[in-house]
Amino acid sequence: MKKLIVFVSLLLVIVLSACSAPAQAPVQQQAQPANTTPRVISVNGTGQVSLAPDVAYVYIGVQSQSDNVAQALADNNEKAQAIGNALKELGVAEGDIQTSSFNVYPQQQYGPMGEITGTTYSVDNSVYVTVRDLSVLGRLLDTVVRNGANSINGISFDVLNKDQAISEARRLAVESARQQAEALALAAGVSLGDVMTINAYTTGSPIPMDNKGGFASDASQVPLSAGQVIIRVEVNMGYAIR
Description:
The chain has four helices and seven strands, in the order H-E-E-H-E-E-H-E-H-E-E. Helices cover about 30% and strands about 40% of the residues. It is elongated and about 85 Å long. The chain is α+β, with helices and mostly antiparallel strands. Strands 3-4-2-5 form a four-stranded antiparallel beta sheet. A three-stranded antiparallel beta sheet has the order 1-7-6, covered by helices on one side.
């Protein structure tokens, strides 16, 4: 009977020890994070196309002054009307003549002691003119000055339809970037994959002409050079490395 009690006691101690022992969690091997950063070759390409301008934009203004505001306004209106008629006679359409500003303001005159000695009134009338026939531009400017214009500024040249030139410049820019990427890949001993990123930027700006053909040869005309309009496209491209 004692042996049975001792056996049961030992069995109970073993069971209690097993229950009180901390459970061992299964050991799991953590996976190493994979390198997800893509390998890329980044290049910049530029393409440009030169175009002869076919349109000009110019601000033409008349400023009149008088001690009498009504007289200043009448003088200004008369000159502005003469300028408008001259522009139309030179082939400028009415829709290409747009008023850009009209201002009437007083200018006080002061004596040596700072006292007000009088008031002069100024009237400014400025129009924004689109000239589509550049062959008459020099004569046009000379004519409007002779008809009373005393403010001419902001002459700029442009091309009305640049779509085809932009497409060609874009193609040249992409081709330039591709050639650079291939040369870099060859030097690095790798090969190019798919295009990963691409960004494009388009600009257009006039530059002077290199020949005398852009200048007015008639001494009665204002000498002008239309120059050339450069359409430039820049691209930034990223190619995957295989």
